[in-house]
Amino acid sequence: MKNRASYTPEEKLQIVRAVLSKKTTIQKVAKEKQIAPTLISLWKKQAEDAMMARFQPQPKGRRKITPAVAPADADTRSLKNEARKAKIKAAHLEASVKEMKARCAKLEDLLSGLTATLGYKMVKARTSRKGRKA
Questions:
Q1: Cβ of 24: how many Cβ atoms within 10 Å?
Q2: Of 8, 26, 72, 81, which has the highest C-beta tally within 10 A?
Q3: Rounded CA separation 42/79 (Å)
């Protein structure tokens, strides 16, 4: 497996300048440097886009200072994520409680059937008003 070669910005600039000045073709540079031609084309496009952005007209006058609202948005977003996660967790817990109640009901049915076949009388524990077993 080949290791990826990394190129410094200066090397990339030198290659792109050679291609832009039409001293050589992308194919020749790619073969000489052992680089994929598509990679050189990508660097060329990035350089052209950066130059185009640099020469775009700038608005006249002073820049308007906007209040920093980004941190509040980030806080709101994180709180919403936490609330969403809590709702999901609550839904899972509710489903688990329903499943456990169903299991308990099945076990009570099995226990009552077993006690009936053995001839025992099933007695439920009584609870007092304070919720403790009597």
A1: 12
A2: 26
A3: 40
Do residues 111 and 122 lie in contact, with contact meaning Cβ atoms separated by under 8 Å? yes
Q: Specify whether the CB–CB gap between 19 and 25 falls below 8 A.
A: yes
| Largest Cα–Cα separation, the chain | 103
The one-digit pLDDT tens for each residue of the chain (134 residues) are 567 788 898 999 888 998 888 888 899 989 988 899 999 999 999 998 988 888 888 778 777 776 655 566 778 888 999 999 999 999 999 999 999 999 999 999 998 888 888 877 666 666 666 655 55
Burial (CB < 10 A; 0-12, 13-18, 19+), residue 44, is middle
**DSSP code of 78?**
H
Q: Which residues pair with 133 in a beta bridge?
A: 127
Tell me the whole-structure pTM to 2 decimals: 0.42
